[in-house]
Amino acid sequence: MEKIASFTVNHLTLLPGLYVSRKDHAGDQVITTFDIRMTRPNYEPVMNTAEIHTIEHLGATFLRNHPVYGDKVIYFGPMGCRTGFYLLLAGDYESKNIVPLMKEMYTFIRDFSSEVPGARARDCGNYLDMNLPMANYLADRYLTQVLENITEERLIYPE
Length: 159
What we know:
Oligomer: single chain
Distance between the termini: 23 Å
Radius of gyration: 15 Å
């Protein structure tokens, strides 16, 4: 069986960053998948499910309500390895194109202090698994360590 593209990325040299994972076509529309890598794979601890779940709720809410990108969002959700998130946007983008959007989103998550959207039994299948303070911390860490001074090595997958 052929190895899928995401398993061909060298996770031993991959740094936290914002990468184009793949581009697919749905009819004549390009769908760009972004790898929002928040922790260094196989090097530092992965994120716990509670903060990932909180970032997912806040990020999806922010993105789907965004005045420019809201109608382009196909999906935002966590990676199974718990080192980051995937964002799928309708359109042909490069990583550098969405750095401002990611700065907005992670600032929103860092500064969020109210009830997490969808964190009720009626709205979510695991509403008790949330950790807003840790989500705030991780968002701030990603903003300051990655997004604020992002370089090419954190925008393009390593060879």
